[in-house]
Amino acid sequence: MHLKMLLFVKRALKEISPTKNFKSLTTNIQGDILAGITVGIIALPLALAFGEISQLGPIAGVWGAIVGGIIGGLFGGCMVGISGPTAPKAAQIAAFMSFFVIGTTNEPDLTAAFSIIFISGLILVILSLLNVSRFIHYTPYSVIAGFMCGIGLIVILTQMNAFIGLEVEKNIHDVFNNLGSSLADVNIEALVVSVPSLLILFLWPFLEKNSKYLTKIPSPLVALIIGTTIAHSFKLDIPFIGDKIFNASGQNIFSFYIPDFSRLKDFFGPALALAGLAVLDSLLSCKVADNMIGDRHSSDRETFGQGMANMAAGLVGGVTTATATMRTVANIKFGGKTPLSSIVHGLTLLAILLGLSSFVAAIPAACLAAILFKVGIDIMDYRILPVIRKIPKTDLLIFCVVLFITVYEDLMVAIAIGICIAIIANFKQFKSSLSLSNQYSSKTFAHSNFSKKDNKFASTNEDLVQIFDIRGPVFFGSVESLLRAYSALPAHKILLMDIRKISSLDITGAYALEDLIHQLRKKGISTYVICTQVKIKTTLKNLNIIESMGSDRYLNSPNEALPAIEQELSQFQ
Questions:
Q1: Rounded Cα gap, residues 126 and 279, in angstroms
Q2: Cβ distance 289 to 332 under 8 Å?
Q3: Structural domain boundaries, residue 90
């Protein structure tokens, strides 16, 4: 028993060890420093905005980004990940704050908030040691899509009042209850700031196409500068960030909070929900990064890193953190390759906070609202929305339920209910998948039956072509095992994916196949899909997968692929 415990501890410590992070810090110094500074500038308006939406204050958002960048970079499991406040986590902490106020006032109980954040970090550290994070891979895509769209709507709706120059509502229910009166009390002066700021954010991608220099300038920063300039040039009577900061000169920038464990019973539920959301939010962002750089993150180490970052955020008064997709993508595009870029991003924000606190205080609340409007729009899942009416009925039901509960009730409850519905609806698929011992198999071109038609390339190129045979159900519960089966294949240049014998395909499975094919294309591996079932083809067509991959790559039989395969093989002679 003691030996097993010792082995468990040894394995756990090895998984979360930051040794790889430390060793990599000097391998791309120039590129990481430039990327880190750029992403830090991009992160500033977002950090301020997410701090605002969390109800903990804009400065809390910046501190969350600082500790997320530095601590998350040192201990995280994604080499290019950038941590900090995110829309889902900011919205979640805001939902909790309606239950934790000081006395009879509406002022948030900051000690309670930061205690919850600290405890959520502690829970994440424990989860990393228990290897719980691996279960994120079994989350249905319809749940994720409903959750992301719900968060997007929450962000947009809760910032509506700030956009038109009014006090921000505490929760989504107040937004709906007071919608009529809010629209009747529009502050025109606020619109003078918010509308141009929003237009800049929408038009910037089109302007970037005509100038290579503009691509290096983050649009949120441009919107922030122009919105602030307009507000002060015309001396507009509108709310400013400084109205929420006791002293913009820099005194009250630093705060320290000791976790109140005497109220652990009250704090544990919200902290557990935050921890679960951190795992979901972070690891999904890491998967996006994996696809972009062709690497594979360490889920346990990433969970551990986020745990350490959230504990630090709770101590210094920062908004709860997670790996942020948009900032991570920006980091990759600007040349970041190691955790040094994340650390530099955090140090950049610290320098800005210390040196430009008066500028931060001068930012109009309406300008931040415009930035959050755009964030809310961007965070929605535009992969599923254009085809929402064509997705399988079960996936549509799950999407709608998760979206509704996310907006009107609770994020984690929505995810839990969505997963439960998915498990119940796919019970037969689970049973079928477990009973299949040969669900995935492979063979080379030379040893396949159809290659006998013309085998002139087989003898010299047999290892270049792999045939990946997939049987049984392909759904959210089997996707991870499918990807593991593929990763075990020998090296090859051409892949023939035979899906003629799959029994069912949900949206998670369909998008997993598409993502795999896209990933292979980036690596220079040609892929052909053999599919004869009308039902499966219809699903792929309805989700625009066949169109995105090219209809010539989707064939009815292996023999149809022979001419193209032989032509490609001739290049290796």
A1: 12
A2: yes
A3: 20-421
H-helix or E-strand spanning residue 500: strand 494-505
H helices, E strands: number in the chain: 27, 7
| ∠ Cα 239 243 248 (to 5°) | 130
- What is the rounded radius of gyration, in angstroms, for the C-alpha atoms of the chain? 25
CA distance 108 to 113: 8
**Residue 411 and residue 443 in one domain:** no
pLDDT, tens only, 439-482: 888 877 666 655 555 555 444 555 688 889 999 999 998 988 89
Candidates 325, 322, 321, 323; CA nearest to 291 is 325
E strand or H helix at 142:
helix 141-158
Structure tokens at 508: 């998670």
Angle between helices 58-75 and 29-53 (to 10 degrees): 140
Distance CA 248, CA 232 (A): 16
Q: Is the pLDDT of residue 307 over 90?
A: yes
Q: Residues 371, 331: one domain?
A: yes
Type of residue found at 308: M
440 shares a domain with 396: no
Say whether pLDDT at 510 is over 90: yes
Q: Which residue has the tokens 């201990």?
A: 75
DSSP character string of 312-370: HHHHHT----EE-HHHHHHHHHTT--STHHHHHHHHHHHHHHHH-HHHHHTSBHHHHHH
CB 16 within 8 A of CB 128: yes
In a domain? residue 426: no
Nearest to 317 by CA among 39, 37, 64, 35: 64
- Does residue 440 sit in the same domain as residue 408? no
DSSP one-letter string for 32-76: HHHHHHHHHHHHHHHHHHHHHHTTS-HHHHHHHHHHHHHHHHHH-
Which residue stretches of 164-218 are H helix? 172-177, 179-184, 188-208
Domain closes at, from 421, 449, 465: 421
Q: For residues 11 and 62, which has the higher predicted lDDT (pLDDT)? A: 62
Contact 119, 135 (CB under 8 A): no
Last residue of one domain, picked from the residues 395, 421, 447: 421
DSSP secondary structure letter of residue 520 = H
pTM score of the predicted model: 0.80
